[in-house]
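Running this now, will post back.
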Amino acid sequence: MESHAHPEPDQPAPTDQQDVPGPSSGASDTAQGPVLRVGYETGMMPGKWLRRWRERGDGLEEQQLAPGQWPQALGETVDVALIRLTPHPHTEAGAALADLTQLRESFHVVELYDEQQVVILPVDDELTLLDDVPVGELADEWLLQELDQLPEHRPSAEGRGTDDAGAPRQLPEIADSGAAVELVAAGVGLYVAPMSVARWHHRKDLTYRPIQDLPLVPVVLVWPKDLPEQTEAMVQDFQGIVRGRREGSSRGSESEAIASRADEDLSNSRDPEVQRAASAARKRSKAKSGSASGGSRTGKGTSRGDQLAGKRLAGGRPRRSGGGRPGGKPKGRGGRPGRGR
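Update: finished.
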């Protein structure tokens, strides 16, 4: 698995979570064809992958998911999801989904990359003097998260994170990471989160520092094992884009076969306009495949040494240097024809 990687943040995620598709058994259909529904958690910016999918002309619906809500959304409002796994799987019932091994028992899972954990803090905090903050430096700080989410953190009895009796302070009500960041800006405490979350909630009065001695946060692509056949084919295509597979690679998919059958339908149409469009599309496809394979090389455009070597291997005679054509007379000094002997 890659480490410290992060997708290109080139397309902002939608923030309105009200307009989401209703429950269904698979990808939705429109007048243009089937639509793949992709979900991703707060802070993730898969704009590059979504753009490549749309460039293929395929339908797409995207939905931002609240952390930990993907099991309810997967298969209902989204077909495939980008999610984070906790670096510390819990033992209580239901939390085993955070463990990669057990997750694969119920879902298809593709490991993508790992995220660095960082501490979000005010720009004038003294910890900003450090390039990265050891977790031990946070002992005197009040971290705005449950201690079981960060078992490496040991709050000191005299620090801000404990009461007069030395017990951990009761956390205020925190709805999500955005609310936690607001509390950091208000000077209440500090907040540890994956780096992409810190970038998502960027503010001029806040910054972040990596915590190198905390475990990385795995990011995976996950989808149900019982998707309809057509939806499964689209998910396979999408995960190929996410993993960097080029369109038309040796690992084909059923969606390509579906597209091929659609081309056949166009070719068999009696409408002259449709036939011309189908013919033009086939010509473009052949031209593209020919240029992609590189075609056969000829002597044209190669060096003179390559051309001569090719002629010798073919049993031909190299062209004479003089006269510009076979049988021409060699030139003497000054460009004049030499005297015959």
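The first helix runs from residue 47 to 55. More later if anyone needs it.
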